[in-house]
Amino acid sequence: xxxxxxxxxxxxxxxxxxxxxxxxxxxxxxxxxxxxxxxxxxxxxxxxxxxxxxxxxxxxxxxxxxxxxxxxxxxxxxxxxxxxxxxxxxxxxxxxxxxxxxxxxxxxxxxxxxxxxxxxxxxxxxxxxxxxxxxxxxxxxxxxxxxxxxxxxxxxxxxxxxxxxxxxxxxxxxxxxxxxxxxxxxxxxxxxxxxxxxxxxxxxxxxxxxxxxxxxxxxxxxxxxxxxxxxxxxxxxxxxxxxxxxxxxxxxxxxxxxxxxxxxxxxxxxxxxxxxxxxxxxxxxxxxxxxxxxxxxxxxxxxxxxxxxxxxxxxxxxxxxxxxxxxxxxxxxxxxxxxxxxxxxxxxxxxxxxxxxxxxxxxxxxxxxxxxxxxxxxxxxxxxxxxxxxxxxxxxxxxxxxxxxxxxxxxxxxxxxxxxxxxxxxxxxxxxxxxxxxxxxxxxxxxxxxxxxxxxxxxxxxxxxxxxxxxxxxxxxxxxxxxxxxxxxxxxxxxxxxxxxxxxxxxxxxxxxxxxxxxxxxxxxxxxxxxxxxxxxxxxxxxxxxxxx
Length: 549
What we know:
The protein contains 14 helices and 15 strands. With about 550 residues, it is an alpha+beta fold.
């Protein structure tokens, strides 16, 4: 039976604080075991979902000070707490413990209750129809015929304790796994699901209608939600009706299709899906699921006086090869243009054709994407400051991506300006945060190495993993706002009106930036270059489009 608890402004009824004592280790183990296994400690009907249990050794402290043998247990019910909430709670706990206060981000106005209200107000018609159609005739209550070597105990004899078994793929198998995903333009997740479905198909001696649970962790879709404790996870069924006569490539495409469609409607709560099948008492598909975990590589790399500290070297473009590749291209007199290995093959070929590039640097994961690219030897070239250093594509949000041409003098003088004002120096540790499609990544990588600083390369998804970031770099403060300030050295800023004249004091105008940082124009798009770059008093300026005073 579902019960809706009345909304309260006082949240003290949602948690309880318990104090107990223990004498021996056996008594302590009993208390801990009870916290783990006793479902009656929470009262969901009254909204009691959080417990703080203070366990004192021998006697309760009169001054509320803990000794080294005292223990605090924080116990959360999963109805209001998912795994990302653990990092949020530990961060807040650490802040409150070290500073004596708890501050909130300026952009955090939402509460978990607000999220629940918004979810209830969302239109679920399309999602409801989708899941009714996908799960039509699916036997959700039927367990798979797996070859168990023993059968489970009756419910009254079960301990409800799980176990885990680990095994190593091995380097060769992992290597071939990554190559297959890259060469077929398919994600590792889809490839893994396809292999898993084949595994279940063979274990069940040919069952073709397979359904398993898939955990969804992307419901914190707004920045405000990333700092809120709550249950944002969802579980959806992933149904695969495979044909035993398919080749593996056909299965891959089918898994890719069903996964993409299911993710589109993954916001539909699991309880709503179960309510569509009221005659089912056992939801067997939830007994099977698949999770992904990545592991770190502690290798480090030194280039000159600079140190690179890599994170996990998984299938992404933030590997040590990209640093060596950029430096090699620039030192050989080439023009660096980043291409993401995650882009489809036709897009990569179109971008290469647009740059009229003759050479593409690849590694073992991307070589199959450029089989038709001819290879030539680099010739000795004298590089000048006016030569192009690299080409960076815009995002393409307003149309076809534009190729921005950046000269060596643009980049070098930019770094020199930053070092002149001590914004970047050899004692800095720089975390490489942006993707290779953003211009700032060149400054993060090459700029740091040029000044002799320390460069940290994060694992995939590391930029949004606060716990991981706190381990690789010491975060001590956040910047709330950044004023425009004064121009860097060798730069000139002007506020220009609609008549291309200097605006009067305190009058609004468009910000124009001139100096060594002005790029060389858009490759092959003179019409756009003429709009973006304007000559004033014999000097070239870039129109930012920003209105300032």
